[in-house]
Amino acid sequence: IVISVYFPSGSSSDDRQSAKFRFLDAFKVHMDELRQSGREVIICGDINIAHKEIDLKNWKGNLDHSGFLPEERAWLDQRFGKEGWVDVFRMLDPRPERYTWWSQRGQARAKNVGWRIDYQITTPGIAALARNTGIFPDEKFSDHAPLWVDYDLMVEGAAQ
């Protein structure tokens, strides 16, 4: 199962942050149902949460900002910890300063003052097939950069 998703941003107001928290609650239920199906799952898209300090340049200044709030990061901790979902990019690439989003202000992209808020989150079985990953920071389609993962999906005995 492949899901492309855009999680709401809560940065514009308290009401939008409340909507984001409601979305997280609802999406967790959906993720639970997907895991219970027994199928392999890839969830990819803009999650609008930087999980760890390594995932944004100015983490200290953003501890109380939407996208890096303790409750948002705890939501990801639960998915990646107890529930066993995998952040495939981080599994393959532990390097710092690997961002997928930059503000349009202050030459943030040119200075690489960014956030990694785009993910491929998978079940463990499909994560085990991930071989390579990267980000195309120089591709300027939007304020995000494409994040890609190569999976070795060749089935033994299948035509090459």
Can you walk through the features of this model?
This protein is of the alpha+beta class. Helix content is 29%, strand content 20%. It contains five helices and eight strands, in the order E-H-E-H-E-H-E-H-E-E-H-E-E. The protein has a four-stranded mixed beta sheet. It has a two-stranded antiparallel sheet with strand order 4-5. Strand 1, helix 1 and strand 2 form a beta-alpha-beta unit. It is globular. It starts with a strand and ends in a 9-residue tail after the last strand. The relative contact order is 0.16.
Notable traits:
29% helix, 160 residues, alpha+beta
The main sheet orders its strands as 1-2-6-3
Order of helices and strands: EHEHEHEHEEHEE
Mean pLDDT: 94
Query: How many strand segments?
Result: 8
* Main sheet makeup: 4 strands, mixed
Question: What is the CA-based Rg, rounded?
Answer: 16 Å
Provide a quick synopsis of the model.
The protein is of the alpha+beta class. It has five helices and eight strands; from the N terminus they run βαβαβαβαββαββ. The protein has a four-stranded mixed beta sheet. Strands 4-5 form a two-stranded antiparallel sheet.
